[in-house]
Amino acid sequence: YEPNKLLYNNLKKKGYRISNKTVPPLDEKSNTQDAVILLHILEHMPSSAIAEELINEIYRILKPGGIVFLAFPSYLSWKQNFFNMDYTHSFITTELNVSQLLADYGLIKTSTYYFYGNFFNGFGQLLNTGISLLQSILTFFLPRKITRNETFQKMGITFAENILMIAEKPIETSQKLDILLTENVRLTTKK
Alpha-carbon distance 99 to 107, whole Å? Predict the structure, then answer.
């Protein structure tokens, strides 16, 4: 699901099966997807009920062992800019509340990474801290007309903390046995 028309057209030209629509619901059949990728989608859900519905739908369409990748802004880092820089942000995303949301719908968090602009972990965090400090100092000394400027404000979120979380739909014990048996049959027929 891709709302950006240019990206949508480029992906279509490359042969990807893609649609442009509002989610949830998801059109895919149950237990058919190996992976789902949500890049800065969750925070745009209009309510927690819709966010819950989306995660429930993702659980439904993932195959057992399937993976969901979620990237989202950290509200605790973005603070007022979470809403100030994008009026379409509605669902507050923090590491804890997204982890709880995934767990509530049966997905098991396997990894969490922090990124700041194009940088992961330490260096990006240092940039985020430095820019936030510089912005605070400049806000004190510069006229309000400059510090309330959109470009000046966006400077503060360029390296704000974002989170990449990876979760997995668990495989039931009976399903693990079926997978092992299927793999064993494939291996023995290759000999």
Answer: 9
Pairing between β-strand 33-39 and β-strand 62-73 as defined by DSSP bridges? parallel
Cis before 25? omega within 30: yes
**Which tokens in the block code for residue 95?**
């590491």
pLDDT tens profile 140-165:
777 777 666 666 666 666 678 899 99
pLDDT tens-digit map of 93-139: 999 999 999 999 999 999 999 888 766 666 666 666 666 666 667 76
**Amino acid at residue number 15:** G
Give the integer Cα–Cα distance in Å for 156 and 131: 6
Give the Cα separation of 185 and 118 in Å (integer): 45
The SS3 call for residue 154 is helix
Helix axes 95-104, 48-61, angle to 10 degrees: 50
* Backbone torsions φ then ψ of 33, nearest 5 degrees: -105, 135
User: 168 pairs with which residues across the strands?
Assistant: 67, 108
Reduced 3-state DSSP string for 142-184? CCHHHHCCHHHHHHHHHCCEEEEEEEECCCCHHHHHHHHHHHH
